[in-house]
Every structure is written in C-alpha cells, then in structure tokens.
Amino acid sequence: MVAVALRRSSAPRSRRTPQVPFRRPHYPKERPLNTTDPRFSIPLYTVTEAASYVGVPRSTFDTWVRGYLRRPASGKLVQGHALLTSVPGKRLTIPFIGLAEGMVLAAFRETGLPLQRIRPALERLDKEMGLEHALASKHLYTDGAELLFDYAQLQGDKQLRLLTVVRSGQRVFHDVIDQYLKRIEYEGGWAARLTLPITEEPVLMADPERSFGQPIFVHGAARLTDVIGRIEAGEDEQVVAEDYGVPLADVHAALAAPYRAAA
Predict the structure, then answer these.
(1) Residue 155 burial (C-beta neighbours within 10 Å; 0-12, 13-18, 19+)
(2) How far is CA 156 from CA 52, 249, 260, in A?
(3) Residue of 44, 188, 216, 228 with fewest CB within 10 Å of its CB?
(4) Three-state secondary structure of 114-145
(5) CA 124, 184, 31 angle in degrees (round to 5)?
(6) What domains appear along the chain, each with residue ranges and CATH number?
(7) Nearest Cα to 121, choosing from 91, 79, 149, 95?
(8) CA-wise closest residue to 130 among 206, 49, 25
(9) What predicted TM-score, i.e. pTM, was given to this entire model?
C-alpha cells in the first residue's frame, strides 16, 4: 500500500480559530452525471477483485458497496448506506468509478479514523458538492480538503480535522490521503485512470479503456494476470519479465503486494 504515516502537524499551536459558516463552492450547472458514460455503467470487477486492487479486505469493500443494517446489544437498528457505485450483475458488479471511489475511501481509512466518523463527512461532501459520486470527482481533489476542514471545524470534531492540514494558508488533504489522490488521473471531471495503491512505487494501473480495466503494468503494459499466471505455472521470473518488457523489480513488487488478485 502507499506507505505514508499519519502524523500531527509540528506547527506551534495557535489561538482557537472562531467557527466559520460551512461554505459551498460554486459548480457549473452543466456538469450533470452522464449516465451513458461506461465508467459508471459497465461492470468490470467482482467485489473480491476490486478489494484486492485497492488493498482492503473483501468484507470491508463489500460493506462499502452494500451498506449494512445491524442490531447491537442495545436493540436499536443501526444502518449505514452504501458508499460506492455498483451495478446489477451476477459476477461483475463494480464499474470503474466504483473502483476509483473505493480507492479514495481506502485512503481515508488509512488515516486510522473510524468509518463512522468519516461517513457523515462524506455524505456532506456529496450534498455540498452537488454530486452523487464526489469521491470520484476531480473536485474532491481541488475543493474537498477545504470543505472537510470547514465541516470538521463547524462540528468541533478534532479527529476529523486530522484528515486535512493548513499549509501556506491553504487547506489541503493530509499526506496519507494526498498520496492516493495523486495516483488518480481525471478526464471530463471524473476519474479516468488509477495507479493502484497496493505497491509503494507506481507499478500497476487500471484503465477502463485498456484490458477491460484489469490491472496492467505501468511499464510494459502487460496484464498482471498474464505475468502472474506464467510465474505461478513455474516459469522463471526473469524470462517472463523480459518477454513482456516489464522491469523485474516491478514484477517482484507486484508479487509482494499484500492484496494482489489471484491470476
């Protein structure tokens, strides 16, 4: 996974900042979701595959996709709505946008903040940004940190404030989130390509327009399943790497990925 440690700012403490109204930036009205965009509508991954590509347990990703309904010891039902995009299907249910949303949510999870603290903030992001898929929107990267900072300040939530920092007078995402977001390329305002976070270096990418969205090596463009399949069949790693034009170090990184998908 992206190896970034969450740490508190070393800047000296300042006097308590007065609360400010939650500000909603202006987004053009001509940006409605294009329901014909295949990034949103074509299923490319199983839940198991998507979970492995963003580096979280399958059960966690499944909860993000389906939501949950639980009855704790108190007897009162607790419900959590789905956070990721999915489409009906017998096997493949996660479109590319759902994978992108899962990657961003994995970044928030990496901070160590419980999801029950993050969930209200994400719902507020959707509302304030006027988007149904804020996690996959380029506006999350450009405006999301300021929205979350103001929301945390308005709620008096010091833990939620750990998701953002102030640098040079600007509110930006903490490094642990920023490193994930920098691995996303956008087109038309939405995620278009992902450099997967399961390796520290940029080794694997997912592009819905190449190999049906299945992970390919950044260098060499070979499918991960093809490379892994030959190696697991007993072929020499060096020979396989040379055949596909993939650096051997990248092959080793993919083999060592903690949640890599089975070939």
Answers:
(1) middle
(2) 35, 46, 39
(3) 188
(4) CHHHHHHHHHHHHHHHCCCCHHHEHHHHHHHH
(5) 55
(6) 198-263 (1.10.10)
(7) 149
(8) 25
(9) 0.81
Instruction: Identify how many contiguous H helices and E strands the chain contains and give both numbers.
Output: 10, 10
Query: How far is Cα 192 from Cα 205, in angstroms, rounded to an integer?
Result: 11
Could you please report the per-residue DSSP string of 28-45? -TT----TT-HHHHSEEE
Residue type, 161: R
Query: How does pLDDT run across 252-263, given as a tens digit for each residue?
Result: 999 999 765 433
- The residue with tokens 């409605």 is 32
Residue closest to 148 by CA, chosen among 161, 137, 132, 138: 161
Tokens of 61: 């990703």
CB-CB neighbours of 163 under 10 Å:
25
- Cα gap 144→117, rounded to integer Å: 16
Phi, psi of 219 (to 5 degrees): -105, 115
**Angstrom distance (rounded) from CA 177 to CA 109:** 9
Taking the C-alpha atoms of residue 230 and residue 234, their distance in angstroms, rounded to an integer, is 7
Tokens 């029950």, located at residue: 116
What would the pLDDT profile of 116-152 be if each residue is shown by its tens digit? Answer: 778 887 877 777 777 678 899 998 888 888 888 888 8
